[in-house]
Design brief:
With 401 residues, this protein is an alpha/beta fold. It contains 7 helices and 26 strands. It folds into 4 domains: 6-18 and 171-315, MoaB/Mog-like domain (Molybdenum Cofactor Biosythetic Enzyme, Chain A, 3-Layer(aba) Sandwich); 22-45 and 136-169, Molybdopterin biosynthesis moea protein, domain 2 (Alpha-Beta Complex); 50-131, Beta Complex (Molybdopterin biosynthesis moeA protein, domain 3), CATH 2.170.190.11; 325-397, Beta-clip. 19% of the residues lie in helices and 31% in strands. A hairpin with a 2-residue loop joins strand 8 and strand 9. The longest helix has 19 residues, at 297-315. The chain is elongated, with a radius of gyration of 30 Å.
Length: 401
Amino acid sequence: MTLISVDAAQTELLSAVRPTGSERVPLGDAGGRVLAVDLKARRTQPPVPISSMDGYAVSAASAGDVWLRVIGEAAAGHGFAADAQAGEAVRIFTGAPLPAGTDCVVMQEEAERDGDRVRFKSQPVSGHYVRARGIDFSEGDVCLNAGVRLGFGTLGLAAAMNHESLSVRRRPRVALIASGDELMPPGSVLQPHQIVASSSVALAHLIAEAGGVPIDLGIAPDDLGMLRRHIRLALDGGADVVVVIGGASVGDHDYTRAALEAEGAAIGFWKVAMRPGKPLMHGRVGQAEVLGLPGNPVSTLVCGVLFLAPLIRALLGRCDVLPETLLAVLDGALGPNDLRRDYLRGHLATKERQLHVTPFAKQDSSLMRTMAAANALVIRPEHAPAISAGEMVEVIRLDRD
């Protein structure tokens, strides 16, 4: 089978994805969730002109270099009920509504107070230190669009818009199946021929960070029937995505494709022109997406960053789906590349206000210690020529949610 490019594989993976349904949750439970509908303001903010400073509210036109009579005060939550006339001032505090008959605030440092009289060191200016009605938003304004992931700023805005609950996307359920006779759970007493199944733990965290719900279905041995039973368990359990780790290559004990097809999967692409992660498989069973990931743990996680996390974001209807790429200065030279796009693990740091990246010397796809030390992937395009230190390269940060 001909290798498919990374770009083509991502396009095929995401092109037919339909976002999950919506559910309403209390505002306090909406952190990290993805907004399902555009959100309109239920009020105007501020609803009236508001003082942005402690001082005196006056009419600029009638407050020259003269003494004004202080007729009362206005505080946040306690406005001044009467109208201010020419020659009058109202003591005002930050957040208080501007009294009728006034159009500016003179801050208290510019005021000279004598009993119930006040005058100012400079001429008041209309509009100074006043937050106009609706300066933030007006009732009916769409202030948050569907597809935004809700963080502290957007949650605060939703609250200010007077929403007590929000319609958010249901979190995609992602079933994880590790495949291989050699695999054992963390904490096991291991024989020399056995290894710890680390990828499921790492992928579960990546899934949760992307907004999904990981469902670990354990380890399936290298047996077609057992692997099929695990896949059927995932599908019957309502998984939106079924991920099989390992067994996606062409060896005698690689059953992922056969098991998926036996359970009704239509395989889209298999084998991607990338390093690490070539034996990557994608298909669909009914409404469920299925991914067969390579077994080497670094390959698994790189594929998770490039394919699984974007798939979860697409299921959530997010605006930003694919990994963001940045430019960084390369510290160290790199040789020419072949027909597969490379994703080199490296360390990204800021030096003299410029991003620099250093690829690690060891890039074997089994080295989890190297993966753990990496905070970026250095992208080497297909057939890229040799590159010297100091040149610019594209990188993907690994600390994105």
